[in-house]
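Human: My hope is that you can spare some time for a protein that puzzles me. I am handing you a single protein, as its sequence and its fold in token form. Could you go through the record with me and say what the backbone is doing? Take your time, and here it is.
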Amino acid sequence: MFTLSHIPFLISIVLYLVASVWSIGHIVKPDIFNKKVARWSTIMGFLIHSGYLVFLGINSNSIPITNVYESFVSLLWCVLFVFINIDYLYKLPSLDTFLMPLVAVLSIWALTFDKSDMLITVSLQKFWLVAHIIPIFIGYAAFTISFSLSVMYLTQQRQLKLKLFGRLFSKLPSLEGIDKLIWKTISFGFPLLTLGLVFGTFWVKTQNILGEMWYLDSKVILGLATWLIYAALLHMRLVASFHGTKIALLTIAGFCFVLFTFIGTFFIGSKHAFQKVSNTTPHIEIMGANKQHYSQ
């Protein structure tokens, strides 16, 4: 059930939906759907989203990842932050058409985790934990952008193959331009993912979070698999000079791994940071323990 505290995020979701409709509508009926509406809806949604993130952080006295819902909200903020900067630098006119519907859907999905009983059970003020999470979240955000670009690439390729030179074709960048930006976003996200995983290894080892067999945790395994996919993508691009369809399809597969690593592992028994309250200690005790950590 929604409370007053959800209102800012709900407003952001509405604005993201407006941005989605107007960005798609601008391609179909540009005389009716003004592109500026999509742009300003995205910016306003992001600003409200930012304020909501600050509220969550103040409320928990930490970076807002104390549960799956807060983590999802934080990740989506990172996605929009990276998108706004890329849009400013490269001015791709139709990237929001492919990204904003995804952001809107993921934002609605995030709401379903608000009452989840999976809470973080370690102090968020540990240096290695923070150093582990922030680079990975920004890296995941870059991969989300590369996913949207890959869908854009395949769409434009289909337009060329079928010789559908209509409004959509004219609104999309060239295949070469999209391919280069896919490469740039992966090149930006991969070092951050690597850094986050390295710091995460130090954190797990020093804090003994997952026990002696930490490397068998499902989230660790899938995180490594995600890293290998993007490492393979970079290798194919740098060494084998692959580009185009193969890279786009592998990028989409990589994003599916990112999404499953971020969310799916919580449902297959991963102990990675978040644990079900019923499987650890009572909810009140966990929150009390966290507050004690924060006050130190």
About this structure: Confidence is low (pLDDT under 50) at residues 279-296.
